[in-house]
């Protein structure tokens, strides 16, 4: 039985006997493969502050349903708060300081494949394919949509899932004649006419076809949802779930002792790529516009949650749910007006922390459980390899947290790093900052230490001139005043300890 096999594989890591691991596990799998299937669902720009984590901003009934059979991770971190570099680090299990992928262009699938070749490793899908899995994928997995005709897609996936569909309303700029999408769009199109819906529809069809076959190989499926990434475009029914006027605008302002010039992103980082920039000053958005954007984001979260439920239903209907590991996560977190900023691009907890849900069939200790163990997106690769009896490749930075799935108190690592870089920039106060700066944040024991240096962003040189350091206490809630206070000046011993952790990965 597949549930027994998955538990037995996990016990090889944790040292628990297979008999005790599968006690009371009686449900047989419909499809008998030697190893479990895997479904990885990656949302784009989904912050942790949603219903499944106990927040009332937007309900997530389907993620809640998944969590009842899963472990929910409270301290999961991305390795770069930007789509392309984050996904590259996830699929390569490599820190940006080692892959040198620090921009969206570098995070395109073809560039990630080239980097993998230079590093002497395989991407996660390619590695599973090499070790006997049928790999299936589509949507926004890298910084470009996975397309069937590209060579990079053929290296990763045996089957590529199309995701052609609608995504927002284009508006022509009267000056430049360029077309840009509106930031929000409640469409009259159906659920499966949008890109994400089309992708999930094709994933469901593949599962249904697979269920009719007597397949000898397990599958490894990656579904890259573009939502809730802007434009906030979704079928109107999901906008109707959220009353615009009921949106609560955040009043969290940047504290005076924060390294504002370095650590905060530009206020116009989001609107600058949408048609709305013609009408609004991003530095002073009116309350009505903020509420419109918050409603649009919430609608897209609800849409993504609906599609997750669709995939879970399909697993059950096809009989694959009893022998399929399910992972749900996001490429990074997100801000909705905190610090007077929108989107991502920073090392603050709102941007660096991601939702992470892992379901291992038959593992009761991992059902309806919550762990505060520190994990990173780079750890998914070795964890899934361990669970599926696939060799963990040498030379990667990730560490398997399979032991945590068996015991939520167990932690495979003491700390994790998140990186960011900045190009030359002039802020609103007309101050020009160094042409190339970089930073690494070390998350350990409830603290976040950030070190900023001047130098080429791709090299992350720890020996370069240090521009400033930050230390935050996140034992308290991330929105509390104390967690926003840079305490580096009053905690020199803690700074010294975490500087050593930072040096280990940047040297």
From TrEMBL:
Keywords: Calcium, Hydrolase, Metal-binding, Signal. SUPFAM superfamilies: Alkaline phosphatase-like. It is an enzyme of class 3 (hydrolase). InterPro entries: Alkaline_phosphatase_core_sf (IPR017850), IDS (IPR035874), Sulfatase_N (IPR000917). GO terms for molecular function: choline-sulfatase activity; iduronate-2-sulfatase activity; metal ion binding. Its EC number is 3.1.6.6. Residues 1-21 form the signal peptide. It comes from the Bacteria. Its cofactor is Ca(2+). It holds the Pfam family Sulfatase. Residues 36-389 form the Sulfatase N-terminal domain. PANTHER family: IDURONATE 2-SULFATASE (PTHR45953). Belongs to the sulfatase family. This is Choline-sulfatase. The gene is betC_26.
């Amino acid at each position: 039985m597949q549930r027994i096999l998955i538990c037995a594989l996990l016990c090889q890591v944790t040292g628990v006997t297979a008999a005790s691991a599968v006690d009371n596990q009686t449900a047989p799998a419909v499809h008998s493969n030697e190893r479990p299937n895997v479904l990885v669902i990656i949302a784009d720009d989904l912050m942790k502050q949603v219903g499944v984590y106990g927040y009332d901003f937007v309900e997530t009934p389907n993620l809640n349903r998944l969590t009842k059979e899963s472990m929910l991770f409270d301290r999961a971190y991305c390795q770069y708060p930007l789509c392309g570099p984050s996904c590259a680090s996830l699929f390569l299990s490599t820190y940006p300081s080692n892959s040198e992928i620090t921009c969206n262009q570098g995070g395109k699938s073809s560039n990630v494949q080239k980097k993998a070749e230079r590093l002497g490793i395989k991407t996660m899908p390619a590695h599973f394919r090499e070790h006997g899995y049928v790999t299936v994928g589509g949507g926004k997995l890298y910084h470009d949509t996975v397309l069937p005709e590209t060579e990079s897609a053929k290296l990763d996936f045996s089957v590529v899932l199309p995701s052609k569909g609608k995504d927002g309303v284009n508006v022509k700029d009267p000056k430049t004649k360029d077309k840009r999408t509106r930031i929000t769009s409640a469409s009259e199109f159906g659920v499966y006419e949008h890109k994400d819906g089309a992708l999930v529809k094709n994933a469901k069809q593949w599962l249904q076809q697979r269920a009719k076959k007597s397949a000898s190989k397990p599958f490894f499926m990656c579904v890259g949802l573009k939502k809730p990434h802007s434009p906030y475009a979704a079928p109107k029914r999901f906008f109707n779930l959220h009353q615009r006027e009921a949106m609560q605008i955040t009043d969290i302002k940047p504290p005076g002792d924060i390294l504002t010039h370095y650590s905060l992103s530009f206020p116009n980082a989001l609107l600058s790529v949408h048609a709305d920039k013609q009408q609004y000053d991003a530095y002073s958005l009116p309350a009505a516009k903020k509420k419109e954007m918050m409603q649009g984001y919430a609608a897209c979260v609800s849409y993504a949650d609906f599609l997750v439920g669709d995939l879970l239903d399909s697993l059950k209907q096809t009989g694959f749910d009893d022998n399929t590991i399910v992972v749900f996560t996001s490429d990074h977190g997100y801000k909705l007006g905190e610090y007077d900023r929108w989107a991502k691009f920073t090392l603050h907890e709102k941007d660096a922390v991601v939702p992470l849900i892992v379901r291992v069939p038959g593992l009761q200790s991992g059902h309806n459980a919550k762990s505060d163990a520190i994990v990173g997106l780079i750890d998914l690769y070795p964890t899934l390899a361990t669970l599926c009896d696939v060799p963990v490749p040498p030379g990667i930075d990730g560490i398997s947290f399979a032991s945590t799935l068996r015991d939520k108190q167990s932690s495979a690592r003491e700390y994790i790093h998140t990186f960011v870089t900045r190009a030359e920039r002039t802020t609103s106060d007309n101050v020009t900052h160094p042409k190339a700066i970089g930073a690494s944040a070390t998350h350990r024991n409830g603290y976040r230490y950030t070190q900023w240096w001047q130098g080429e962003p791709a090299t992350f040189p720890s020996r370069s001139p240090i521009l400033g350091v930050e230390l935050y206490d996140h034992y308290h809630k991330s929105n509390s005043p104390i967690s926003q206070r840079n305490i580096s000046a009053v905690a020199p011993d803690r700074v010294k300890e975490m500087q050593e952790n930072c040096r280990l990965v940047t040297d």
